[in-house]
Amino acid sequence: KTGMVNWEAKQKCPDLILVPPQYDQYLKYSRLAKAIYERFSELIEPYGMDECWVGLNPQISFTDGIVIADTIRKSMKAELGLSVSIGVSFNKIFAKYRNIKKLHFVLLYA
């Protein structure tokens, strides 16, 4: 399970210590990540607070898409200290599906 409400987490782990969120930092890094995406595409669609779809020009080859995804991943780590995973596919659904529960990877689905 990728997320649960606090009361449910406390039930499963009574000694759980809840730390207040730092939304200002979250928003800051979301903006910085978006700036990295904008280097490669104008087609950026937010998907929640910490995910985005980045559409590439249809003229770009699948291989170039892989290179771009890996460049984004490396830029996020080098510039922001964030580990990210990126799914590359011909549509959003497969890109997301191939990306589930992976960290700091570029996954492909042709």
Question: What sequence of helices (H) and strands (E) makes up the elements?
Answer: HHEEHEHE
- Bin the strand percentage: 5-15%
Total helical elements: 4
Principal-axes shape call? elongated
Computed over alpha carbons, the radius of gyration is: 16 Å
Instruction: Give the N-to-C terminal Cα separation.
Output: 27 Å
Q: Strand pairing plus helix content: what structural class? A: alpha+beta
Number of strands: 4
What does the largest sheet look like? 2 strands, antiparallel
Low-confidence stretches: none
Mean pLDDT metric: 84
Question: Helical proportion?
Answer: 40-55%
Oligomer: single chain
Q: In which order are the strands of the major sheet placed?
A: 1-2
Report on the structure:
Helix 2 (23-37) runs antiparallel to helix 3. The two termini are 27 Å apart. The chain is elongated and about 55 Å long. The protein has a two-stranded antiparallel ribbon. Helix content is 43%, strand content 13%. It has helices at residues 6-12, 23-37, 62-80, 92-97; strands spanning 43-46, 52-55, 86-88, 106-108. It contains four helices and four strands, in the order ααββαβαβ. It has 110 residues and is of the alpha+beta class.
